[in-house]
């Protein structure tokens, strides 16, 4: 018996990067900007143009994200990267307005609402092509998660040309949503965009969602995310959202819920393909579970643990970047208005301080009653800006993985993927697999 392969990990630099190297690295693999020492320490401080403090411990992470969240808004470079797409969304318009909208849409991502989407998600997964010859699983998984979030937010009759939207979205991610030198300086937003970013596929992305919004405004009310955004009236002044605000909030859901879910599923496919014994155990668990849409939550603990372990090894948002609004002390270090505070979820999730054999794929860490509850596990963040789609994302991953494992056996068919991605931690280079129908494996 060979030991299972060590899952791919980010190539972290030995020393802190200079500013040009940091920007170049962040454009290719934003996970790899931290020195490797952060995997063995609670924090690291340095300076590249501005002072920075990188945190990899749950106590200070909670202080920044939860207890003192009001004093740690997202840093401007991150906002500048997403402003062209999400300018009118609640991600950027905070304060009372942002909190109110966030509360309005939350019920659409509850456990009950997620389970309601179960049969549709299962149908989408069943219709996903899984060739017998070697294929890059990221292609079908990206299309699947894009369809899922569009259908959930706008209803399955949204009319969006999904392949065209996917191409435009890929163009946005590869050409526009990458850190540039201008993002690091304080220029007025319009000037940064004029100097640094061409609109590229943005008009097409906006135009496609504009059509969905306008059609729905004529068609009348419906109980989905789009319907809720259109019907929402501010509790204090009765103001309705304008069509552009509705559109940008839908684009926020797509940006936040599509690549993150595709990344998780892609890595999970690779991990299961390279750990066939665990894959067999999950398949047996799924086969033994009742087939109702809620059962995938209650009757498949190992599947849930596989997803958590995937999110530990590959948190799709591998770091959260904040800028203090005033002086403070974190991890014994002074920080101020000019500092960057970076919570590295990747380093915390793989830290020798909090996990045994941190680079190994061991789902049993998360088996209920055995290893769950480690405070150094925060893939969906925590606090007022934490992921509102966390429950849906977990449920969606469970439904899709269980549907796929019930159809085929996954085996590796190429070199391991490498970590990459500017906004989210993606398996780059492809997740090369073969998918053998179960009828042919007995
Ligand atoms: C595995 C999948 C996912 C992961 C790991 C994930 C993770 C996260 C994290 C860490 C944040 C916090 C960002 C920050 O603090 O700067 C976040 C925010 C957000 N997520 Fe997710 N997410 C996932 C899927 C989804 C889905 C399916 C949706 C569906 C709509 C969604 C919607 C959002 C939104 C709207 C925000 C912004 C919240 C705010 O600013 O108040 N996410 N997500």
From TrEMBL:
Superkingdom, taxonomy of origin: Bacteria
Cofactors: heme
GO molecular function: heme binding; iron ion binding; monooxygenase activity; oxidoreductase activity, acting on paired donors, with incorporation or reduction of molecular oxygen
Keyword ATP-binding attached: no
Pfam families documented for this protein: p450
UniProt xrefs under InterPro entries: Cyt_P450, Cyt_P450_CS, Cyt_P450_E_grp-I, Cyt_P450_sf, Cytochrome_P450_monoxygenase
Binding locations of heme: 387
Keyword vocabulary terms for this entry: Heme, Iron, Metal-binding, Monooxygenase, Oxidoreductase
Metal-binding listed as a keyword: yes
Family, per entry: Belongs to the cytochrome P450 family.
Protein's name in the database: Bifunctional P-450/NADPH-P450 reductase
């Amino acid at each position: 018996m060979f030991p299972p392969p060590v899952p791919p990990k980010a190539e972290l630099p030995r020393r802190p990067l200079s500013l040009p190297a940091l920007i170049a690295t962040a454009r290719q693999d934003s996970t790899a900007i931290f020195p490797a020492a952060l995997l063995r320490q609670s924090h690291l401080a340095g300076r590249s143009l501005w002072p920075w403090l990188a945190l990899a411990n749950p106590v200070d992470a909670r202080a920044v994200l939860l207890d003192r969240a009001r004093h740690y808004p997202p840093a401007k470079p991150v906002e500048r990267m997403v402003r062209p797409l999400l300018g009118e969304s609640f991600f950027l318009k905070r304060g009372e307005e942002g909190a109110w909208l966030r509360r309005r849409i939350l019920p659409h991502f509850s456990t009950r609402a997620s389970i309601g989407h179960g049969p549709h998600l299962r149908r989408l997964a069943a219709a996903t092509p899984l060739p017998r010859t070697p294929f890059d699983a990221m292609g079908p998984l990206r299309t699947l998660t894009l369809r899922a979030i569009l259908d959930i937010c706008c209803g399955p009759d949204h009319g969006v040309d999904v392949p065209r939207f996917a191409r435009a979205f890929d163009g946005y991610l590869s050409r526009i949503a990458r850190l540039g030198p201008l993002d690091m300086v304080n220029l007025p937003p319009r000037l940064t965009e004029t100097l640094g970013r061409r609109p590229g596929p943005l008009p097409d992305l906006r135009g496609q969602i504009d059509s969905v919004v306008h059609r729905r405004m004529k068609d009348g009310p419906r109980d989905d995310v789009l319907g809720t955004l259109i019907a929402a009236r501010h509790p204090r002044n009765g103001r309705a959202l304008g069509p552009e605000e509705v559109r940008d909030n839908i684009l926020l859901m797509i940006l936040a819920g599509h690549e993150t879910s595709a990344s998780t599923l892609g890595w999970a496919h690779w991990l299961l393909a390279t750990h066939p014994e665990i894959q067999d155990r999950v398949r047996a668990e799924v086969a033994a579970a009742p087939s109702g849409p809620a059962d995938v939550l209650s009757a498949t603990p190992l599947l849930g643990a596989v997803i958590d372990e995937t999110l530990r090894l590959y948190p799709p948002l591998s770091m959260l970047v904040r800028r203090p609004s005033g002086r403070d002390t974190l991890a014994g270090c002074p920080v101020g208005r000019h500092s960057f505070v970076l919570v590295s979820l990747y380093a915390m999730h793989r830290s020798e301080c909090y996990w045994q054999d941190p680079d190994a794929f061991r789902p049993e860490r998360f088996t209920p009653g055995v290893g769950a509850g480690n405070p150094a596990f925060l893939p969906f963040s925590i606090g007022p800006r934490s992921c509102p789609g966390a429950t849906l994302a977990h449920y969606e991953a469970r439904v899709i993985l269980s549907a796929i494992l019930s159809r085929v056996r996954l085996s590796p068919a190429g070199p391991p993927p490498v970590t990459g991605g500017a906004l989210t931690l993606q398996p780059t280079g492809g997740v090369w697999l073969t998918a053998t129908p179960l009828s042919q494996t007995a």
